[in-house]
Amino acid sequence: MDFTGHGHQDLAGNALTGDMYKDFMTGDFTVPTIVSTAPTDGATNVSTATGTYVVEFSEPMDNASVEDAFAISPSVPGTFDWDARHTVLTFDPIGLAYSTEYTVSLGTGAMDQHGLALAQAHSWNFTTRPRPTGAIMAMVVGEDGYTISGVTVSIGGISTTTNKTGHFVLEAVPAGERKLVVNHPDYESKSVSVRVVADQTTSVDDIILAPKTEHPLIDWVWIPLIMLIIVLAVVLKTIPAFNRKLNRMLNRRLKRKMRK
Predict the structure, then answer these.
(1) Burial code of 159-178, b = ≥16 C-beta within 10 A, e = fewer?
(2) How far, in Å, CA of 198 to CA of 234, rounded?
(3) Are β-strands 133-142 and 207-209 bridged in parallel, bridged antiparallel, or unpaired?
(4) N or C: which end of the chain has fewer CB within 10 A?
(5) What are the residues facing 89 on neighbouring strands?
(6) Is residue 224 domain-resident?
(7) Residue 63, Cα to own-chain centre: how many angstroms?
(8) Which of 76, 102, 128 lies at the terminal end of a domain, its last residue?
(9) Are 165 and 141 in contact (CB under 8 A)?
(10) CA distance linking residue 48 with residue 71, whole number of Å
């Protein structure tokens, strides 16, 4: 805006003594701020399957600059999405790990649609939920129908033993398809496929174990007898050869005497 010439007067009738120029701008000069986040800072037990991170800003933002200034550690891939007003950013991560603390940060490179940046960088933390687990419950019996106590039941590094009534409950088992391994010194080992459901106790049909098969031929009582049979066989095999050798020696001596 400019005021030129001497025709301009104040209320008292005093005229301008010279030209005057004044520049000014209109528009938004308020720097953007973060209104809210979800999950909130320090949140725990965040889902790894459906978890998203949402940031709400005080005014429409420049999408590209915000996404460039966005970071998550440990790093995970993901996709960005904006609402129609460009004030709410949603980050949908792919492959969050269980029982892990993540730090989300937004640097000062994030700008609004007028090119004004955040006044300062921000960061928040959240922790994902533990791996979902369930429990398995069953009874172990022999082929005769009697329950077996002291049976070791395990899945990976998780194990327990059956009680006096042959029952067991195996807890804190990761959800999903699992192999239940059953062992007892007097019975053949057995593997059972089980589907473990998170936050539930899965009841399994009675697990039947077969007694171990006896192997009498390798029992220590039979070892001396087997050795004796082997020795006798060797001796009997060598007797005919010994007799032939003895006969040849006697015949030679007899012939020498006859020559004399």
Answers:
(1) eeebeeebebebeebebeeb
(2) 67
(3) parallel
(4) C
(5) 55, 82
(6) no
(7) 34
(8) 128
(9) no
(10) 18
In a domain? residue 152: yes
Q: Which H, E and C letters describe the chain, residue by residue?
A: CEECCCCCECCCCCECCCCEECCCCCCCCCCCCEEEEECCCCEEEECCCCCCEEEEECCCECHHHHHHHEEEECCCCEEEEECCCCCEEEEEECCCCCCCEEEEEECCCCEECCCCECCCCEEEEEEECCCCEEEEEEEEEECCCCECCCCEEEECCEEEECCCCCEEEEEEEECEEEEEEEEECCEEEEEEEEEECCCCEEECCCEEECECCCCHHHCCCHHHHHHHHHHHHHHHHHHHHHHHHHHHHHHHHHHHHHHC
Assigned token pair, 135:
């429990």
122-128/43-46 β-pairing:
parallel
Q: Among 93, 128, 163, where does a domain finish?
A: 128
Question: What is the domain range of residue 98?
Answer: 33-128
Task: Please determine, for residue 124, whether its predicted confidence score (pLDDT) is greater than 90.
Answer: yes
Structure tokens of 68?
A: 């460039």
Taking only the tens place, the pLDDT of each residue in 232-260 is 776 666 666 666 666 677 677 666 666 66
Number of compact structural domains in the chain: 2
Per-residue pLDDT tens digits for 166-189: 999 999 999 999 999 999 999 999
Spatial contact of 181 and 154, defined as CB atoms under 8 Å apart: yes
Residue 116 buriedness (CB in 10 A; 0-12 / 13-18 / 19+) = middle
70: nearest Cα among 50, 84, 55: 55
115 and 84 belong to one structural domain: yes
Whether 153 and 105 map to the same domain: the answer is no
Bridging pattern class, strands 152-155 and 158-161: antiparallel
CB atoms within 10 A of CB 79: 10
